Structure formats: C-alpha cells, structure tokens
Amino acid sequence: MTLSSPWRTDFPALAALDAQGQTYLDNAATAQKPRAVLKALSAYYLNGAANVHRAQHLPADRATRAFEATRLGVARAFGAASPAQIVFTRGATEAFNLLAYGLERHVGAGDEIVVSALEHHANLLPWQQLAKRRGAQLVVLPLDDRGDIDLAAAAQRIGPRTRVLAVSQLSNVLGRWQPVAELAALARRQGAFSVVDGAQGAVHGRHDLAALGCDFYAFSSHKLFGPEGVGVLYGRETALAALAPWQFGGEMVREADYQDALFHDAPMGFEAGTPPVAGVIGLGAALDYLNGLDALALADHEAALHAALLTGLAGRDGIRLLGEPHTALACFRVDGVHHADLAHLLGEQGIAIRAGSHCAMPLYRRLGLDGAIRVSLAPYTDGDDLQRFFQALDRALELLR
Ligand SMILES: Cc1ncc(COP(=O)(O)O)c(C=O)c1O
C-alpha cells in the first residue's frame, strides 16, 4: 500500500514502536507526540520549572507567559472570543465533572438532564450522578438507524424541564459526527445549558465553537498530540459565569479569611491548585504544530487512509462493521470469533488496537453486543501500518476459524 505520511518522521515514538515491532492503531485512546511537544516539555524543565501566576521571579514569569500563551492559542484555534473562556483541567473527564458540580445549583428535583445513547462514560456518569444527587431525571436520546442522535426525537425530548444537554461531537465507537449545533440550538430554545464532548471531535478538522453555539465544550490534550494530564474546558462567557466553583484552594481564590472566601471568575476560579504547567505548555506546542500542517493535505490523507481501512474490512468474510463511520476509526466484529480472542492474537503480532466496550457500555448493551475491535488512525498512520494490520488479521482469523 502506498499512502505514505509526510508527518510520520515528526513523531519520534513511531520509529521506537517500529523497532519494537509495534503497529500503533489505538489513536482514539491516545496519540503519539510530535518532536515539537517533546522539545517544549524538556525546554521547560531544563530551563527551570516554576509555578505560574504567583511569583515575581524570572522563571515564574517565563512559565506564566508560556502558560497564558497556550490559553490564547487554544482560544484562537477553537474560535473563542477571549482567552478567559478557556479553563485548563486535568482532562476531558475532569471537565465534565467540573460542569456536573458547577451546574448543580441549576438542577432540582423533577428537572431533566438529557444525554444521548452513545455517550462515553466520561460524559454520562457525571450527569447520571448529578441527576441522582438532585432527584432529577436522566433522559437518554435515542439513535436513528445510522447510529446518530435522532434529531426529531431530541426535539420532542428536550423540553421546558431540561436543564442540561450533554452530547458527544464524534462518537468514539461509531465514528460519526453528531448534529451538535442543532442539538445545542434546541437546548438554547429551552433555556438549558448545552455541553459538547469534543474528546474525539477536537482532533479532526478545525472548529469554531462560537459558531457551533454550545455553552461548553471539552477535550483532552493527550488525544490532540499533547501531553497527558491536561484538558480544556471552553465556555461561553455567560455560561461560565453561571458555574459555581467546584475545587477550592490556591490560585482560584481572590480573598480568604477563616470563615469565608471570595473566588475568582473564570478561568482562574476553576483552576484550583498548581496546574499542569508543563502539560499546558506542551499542549501549546501541539497546537502550534497542528496549525503548521497543511490542513487540506491532512484531511485528504485521513480520508484516504480511512477509505482503505473500510475497504480492507469490507473485503473480508464475516466482518461486521459497527455503523458507517465518517472518519478516523472503525469498530468491527467477526462472525463466530470473540473480539477478546482476536485482540489477543493481534496483540501477539504487535498490532496495538483496542477491544472491549470502549467506555461506552450502555451503547454496546443497546446494540446488543458485548464489545468489538476498534482500529483508529492518526495523521502519522500510513499504508504500511494498515498492511501489517490486515496481514495480522488474516493470520489471526485463520487460527481462530
Ligand atoms: C468521546 C470521549 N469522551 C471522553 C473521553 C475521556 O477522555 P479522557 O480520558 O482523556 O478524560 C474519551 C476518551 O477516550 C472519549 O473518547
């Protein structure tokens, strides 16, 4: 297979993985890091680490400027009007937990929180638990035949009792873009907050969150070629102002006395304690790297790879794709073969894929399945990766059938 990637050599881990006989096709779980990110991380540590915002010395000033430059970079990359709309968290999961606590006072007994049937646990369980804490009802939007959130059903179920709508932009199982702008508009009409899980979607294409119209949007740095332990929560200014702080400590407080305290507004008011300084700086380097890529060439490469993956799967007997993924991944099952057995044999041949229910157990239950195999792609994936995957798949299926 041709399909070479001009970006592969920017990611030193790929040569290391090649040397270990590993073909990395688990990019929806986490992505490898470009050299630019590794350099930014080591420069920060080698030149002198320092805490941000609090000190007057040179290393602190340098760290603070780099940290805040990332906030500005994220705001620009995602179409936020102001960097004050960008809160750094420890990941997408933490962002949803922050929201579920921050919005708690807006949800009462008998109110409704609306999620969809395809949510990742990260954007389901915080809302499920909030509903339990407040005596509210969790409403689950059904999917249509293609596995997309059913807009007609959503229009009926998002109503005057809805306080929060939380939906995924791109399913980590079905690989399909969801109509989040339309859903956010339905929520807005009812005066409900809209939350979009961008953990998978943020990685593919460019996004204009102001145009998308949601109140909140969250993603993790590590899937976007940045370091682990960092996430981003974007909020519309009025939506952020409606949030109560959820973690208390240094950085987020304006004034404190023994019995009471006053807190900062967003973003600082939601960044209690020492933030992941190196990680945020690394995320800034990842965004700079991504912004420097030829977006059209990248989209073409991703589309060609994805088409090759789908064609290869479709050409093999007994393989059942889950839905019709739009981009970047494919989940599948094989007739008469358990996904765990297949994953084991693929792993033995150095193929790094993900098997199981992909942190979306309720979705799998609804589909009547106990799991599947997921292959997921990145800009550095190339035709050789796919060829090795298909060879290993054929060998594994020969053994298992
Ligand atoms: C759709 C979706 N939402 C949320 C998450 C949670 O991301 P993290 O574990 O980085 O917080 C993931 C991670 O796999 C995901 O795929």
How would you describe what is shown here?
The chain has 401 residues and is of the alpha/beta class. It folds into two domains: 125 residues, Alpha-Beta Complex (Aspartate Aminotransferase, domain 1), CATH 3.90.1150; 254 residues, Aspartate Aminotransferase, domain 2, CATH 3.40.640.10. The protein has 14 helices and 15 strands. The strands form four sheets. It has a seven-stranded mixed sheet, with helices on both faces. Strands 11-12-15-14 form a four-stranded antiparallel sheet, with helices on one face. Helix 2 runs antiparallel to helix 10 and helix 12 packs across helix 14. It is globular. The model has no long low-confidence stretch (mean pLDDT 97). The site of pyridoxal-5'-phosphate has 15 residues, from helix 4.
**CATH superfamily membership of the largest domain, which one?**
Type I PLP-dependent aspartate aminotransferase-like (Major domain)
> Averaging pLDDT over every residue, what do you get?
97
Write the H/E string, N to C: HEHHEHEHEHEHEHEEHEEHHEEHEEHEH
User: How much strand content do the residues show?
Assistant: 15-25%
Helix percentage:
25-40%
CATH architecture of the largest domain: 3-Layer(aba) Sandwich
Please summarize the sheet with the most strands: 7 strands, mixed
Spatial strand sequence of the major β-sheet = 2-8-7-6-5-3-4
What small-molecule ligands were found?
pyridoxal-5'-phosphate
- By helix and strand content, what is the structural category? alpha/beta
Q: Please give the count of helices.
A: 14
- The count of domains is 2
| Outline | globular
Q: Can you tell me the CATH topology of the largest domain?
A: Aspartate Aminotransferase, domain 2
- Radius of gyration, in Å, reads 22 Å
Low-confidence stretches: none
The end-to-end span amounts to 27 Å
How many E-type strands? 15
Cofactor: pyridoxal 5'-phosphate
InterPro entries: Aminotrans_V_dom (IPR000192), Aminotrans_V_PyrdxlP_BS (IPR020578), Cys_dSase_SufS (IPR010970), PyrdxlP-dep_Trfase (IPR015424), PyrdxlP-dep_Trfase_major (IPR015421), PyrdxlP-dep_Trfase_small (IPR015422)
Family: Belongs to the class-V pyridoxal-phosphate-dependent aminotransferase family. Csd subfamily.
Catalytic activity: (sulfur carrier)-H + L-cysteine = (sulfur carrier)-SH + L-alanine
